[in-house]
Amino acid sequence: MEKIFYKKTLIGIRIKKLAKGSMPITDPKESVQVIGLKHPKGAYLKAHAHKPRRRVTTRLQEGLVVRKGKIRIDLYAPKKFKSVILRAGEMFLLLNGGYGIHILEDAELFEFKNGPFLEDKVLI
């Protein structure tokens, strides 16, 4: 796991490999909660559900999972300060700032973010 900072602000987390077990990736206070799950065959994670509770967030956080191909993410906070290459099987979680995506090889990605969806995109 690689944490990427701009000055003292955590902009994002790049995940190449998971540690064994159930490991939190994000701080419990973040809007998007990510937990890495890496368990051996035969393991059982207890069935559970979560009680309905009101959750209020004020910041959109996004994640990308590269299923196939290769991409480059340009990170902005507020100006471009770093680029990160992601390959199949890797993930990037954007907690602050913004990003642009360059498709370097034919790619399939999953993007996830907290909702509900609002048309509020601001181009950098």
Fold and architecture overview:
By secondary structure, the protein is mostly beta strands. The chain is 0% helix and 51% strand. It has strands at 2-6, 9-15, 21-24, 35-38, 62-76, 80-87, 91-94, 98-113. Strands 1, 2, 5, 6, 7 and 8 form a six-stranded antiparallel beta sheet that branches. A hairpin with a 3-residue loop joins strand 5 and strand 6. It is globular. The model has no long low-confidence stretch (mean pLDDT 94).
Q: What's the shape?
A: globular
Mean pLDDT, all residues? 94
- Would you list the SSEs in sequence order as H and E? EEEEEEEE
Overall structural class, as computed from helix and strand content, comes to mainly beta
Number of strands: 8
Which parts are unreliable, with pLDDT below 50 for 5 consecutive residues or more? none
Which bin fits the share of residues in helices?
under 10%
Give the number of helices.
Answer: 0
Q: Could you give a short account of the major beta sheet?
A: 6 strands, antiparallel
Percent strand equals: over 45%
Rg, Cα atoms, Å: 16 Å
First CA to last CA: what distance? 27 Å
